[in-house]
Automatic annotation (TrEMBL):
Name the record gives this protein: Amidase domain-containing protein
Transmembrane segments annotated in the record for this chain: 32-52
Presence of the UniProt keyword Nucleotidyltransferase in the record: no
Key words of the record: Membrane, Transmembrane, Transmembrane helix
Amino acid sequence: MVRGVFGLGLEWLEEWIEGESAKLSRGSSMEVALRLVIPLLLLILLVILSSGSPIQNQLTSKRLVEFYLGKIQRFNPVLKGIIEVNPDAMYQANKADSERKACSLSGLHGIPVLLKDNIGTKDKLNTTAGSLVLLGSVVPRDAGVVAKLRKAGAVVLGKASLSEWANFRSLNAPNGWSARDPCGSSSGSAISVAVNLVAVALGTETDGSILCLASNSVVGIKPTVGLTSRAKVIPILPRQDTIGPIGRTVSDAVYVLDAIAGFDYYDESTTDASKYIPRGGYNQFLKACGLKGKRLGMVRNPFFISGSGSGQVKAFEHHFQTLRQGCAVLIDHLEIANIDVILNATLTGEARTLLAEFKLSLNAYLKDLVVSPVRTLADVIFFNEKFSNLVRISAKGLFISLVFACSGRGSGAHSFYDYSTGIYGIIAGNDQGIWPRHLSGSPNHKWNWQ
């Protein structure tokens, strides 16, 4: 990534210069002069770093990781974008520097990357989906995308916070548990990138968790399902789950996509999708006219049917020219048939499918863990009830999928949720509403939680 390291180097230099200037007395002529020459100095350093001069390579992975760890220590207590820092991050950075001296380089060599905490890592980090119940659980191997990141030389900086269970625990929980909603369950990944606690991060999307965040000062790429491996990523709906990069520039996000895309033995969906990856990767299109031959449809209805003078619409239209400069052909005011139905999760059947398949896919994930206090969704729900004081469960904080937790294969029982009372139930037999905890197929009770 200038590949990433390059842009990161400038970030580091700018922070250093600002830090030095802050040491000067307020209002001194030296501080004023220093602040005036910062843009010029950065430009000169840019030329020096790219020229092969003796000062080149002075920015090491170790210094880069130290820089980010310092920023995390300063700002994360307020922002809470990072749930856990990798204790081996400095070791990985030093290893990358040693390999660089031996000219053994990979695509993301020594670049720190943050992972959403539903992406499994076989190391000292936890993989919890933001849930207390999975603290201490152990995955059998790295997630497919993590294995590819390591192969590309990346440093795993830590795990990003997220809406618990990727925003699938409750009907009305805010993304990131914050009144200032960053939009989408990959909230910690986006927050951390936006304020430069890390240059790039991985997020996941089932229904908008990357695309929605990309409207808030970051670049997000949501790959087609199967382009990146879903293996050992805590699932919601496998047919929609996908993993993609979040960065501060398009180029950084594209280089990360190149690193994580491709075939994975543990995810059958990658077999066909990997055949469509262009030879040489996607970064070859980061050039003038990189969009040549591409027809892009601009769908305004029903998204921008009112408030045409709003700042959001103006920003949207401003980028039309940027796309045209990239040699794309724009089809404006594109109308999509039955768009209202497509956007309605109930009418399309998406909502029912989500509820049913979440149980099945999560149970399969939990069953495969090397160490875990829970093995089924029902186990998780009973844990939350038992330790409600710790997980802060309320009537509005119950699992959306509670209605399916103990029923057959999850899709055969009719269910209901009463929004006025907050009551969940399953219709069984003579259409009598039954609490899930009273149904057969009770969870594993061989627990020893103290």
